[in-house]
């Protein structure tokens, strides 16, 4: 690749889970004012863009993923004027802004759905959603056996006898994307925000918009849990790739027509506007279909996130991702954590996994060795940031935050908790508000003197993870991320216009060790084995995930669960 590549091909994008990032007005919930106050921090961290979880007007049945008005900001987070100010200020800090867009469903309080309820069966208003009569003599059974990703049936019956589809919570009715008004409305929404300066969108449930018009029952699969969503192409144990299963409401081919039209909308605006898809696909080839040249720009790489701490599995995922995405001219993206999964220090500190709903997230089980998990998280950060393509940082991972696994049941707010019959705790443990400073809650999350507690309680040991506690400590996770992002920006092998911008070369290494080079003059080595590994010849150490002793500098041994960047 030569010349200036689009920013999104190699961007490091920081995910802001708005409720938990920073509280600007003291009500215990993060907001736009909080983001604005922390823009200098994000600039000093070295990220290229921020992805903001939904900020639209919402009843908050699913913390904003139930949108009542796509053209306004919920008062909990601020105002439309404040959003416009944030976009302008972020650009002055050299940071692009990518909000979420939620096209699969609206809130049940959206004016369209309220009109559908008011007008009754057979009305044009109901055609915008998926309404159907029930089965059975009196229509008292759901139209099919589809299940909600949050647990329970995917259908709710109304007093007039009809049922409506919701692949998530009942407060999130699914739109009918075969309806031209739905398609036109969302293209208008995209233009509304592009004209206000946003640089792109993250598309929620990008794989779920199109349903089989016959609404058939779910296919019979060997794994009954697979009906809840596409599986990643490789499981954490590194088994062979799964075969694609034609599913009645996930990852259907017709969805790509929608995104070809969205790409045309983005191309109407200057500045390389871009989309990233949350698309759960069961093979790398299926994922690559979302990012063909006339489709979306990038897609999350969930195979990488779901991989265990296993060199063979990680290498296979990296190879498959680069090959399949490269075949359609798209960059890979890499992510270790997000707002829907257990934070990776807590995943890597365990050895076993179990599967739960919300599109087949994996959740570790067994005893936690958090010290081991933190060390592996440091090494994983260097691996992720050395790979070709873009990377996503979930807020707080640069602080080394673990999952909060002991939240009292009384404070759990994720709809997964209720919809599962209190069998799955859900995602609140990765959404606890960030610690910024101080020794007691709210640890700088809210303004000084605030008496309202954060919306989720913070652990007592959060003080040791705060930004203030880690700033200037060269051994801290925060300073490791800052250093890695600085080297990534400055080293010619890691930039978007480097000769090997979209590729790497594997080096000979024993089982359990990942070693690869990128031109010119860069080598990354990650030791996932149980034994020290003698490093290849090199000119210098660019960065290590921990203190570098003299033996390492001289080409010595790399300890297990450690990583290093070398100049060669």
Structural overview:
With 568 residues, the chain is of the alpha/beta class. The chain is built from 16 helices and 22 strands. The strands form six sheets. An eight-stranded parallel β-sheet has the order 11-10-9-5-2-1-15-12. The protein has a five-stranded antiparallel β-sheet with strand order 16-17-18-22-20, covered by helices on one side. Helix 8 (284-288) links the parallel strand 10 (274-277) and strand 11. Helix 6 runs parallel beside helix 7.
Please write out the topology.
Elements: E1 12-16, H1 18-21, H2 32-37, H3 39-45, E2 49-52, E3 56-57, E4 69-73, H4 80-92, E5 96-101, H5 111-119, E6 131-132, E7 155-157, E8 163-165, H6 180-194, E9 200-203, H7 255-267, E10 274-277, H8 284-288, E11 298-299, H9 302-306, H10 311-327, E12 333-335, H11 344-348, E13 352-355, E14 362-365, H12 370-386, E15 390-394, H13 415-419, H14 467-470, H15 477-490, E16 505-506, E17 513-518, E18 522-527, E19 533-534, E20 540-544, H16 550-553, E21 557-558, E22 562-567
Parallel strand pairs: 1-2, 1-15, 2-5, 5-9, 9-10, 10-11, 12-15
Antiparallel strand pairs: 3-4, 6-8, 7-8, 13-14, 16-17, 17-18, 18-22, 19-21, 20-22
Helix pairs in contact: 6-7, 12-15
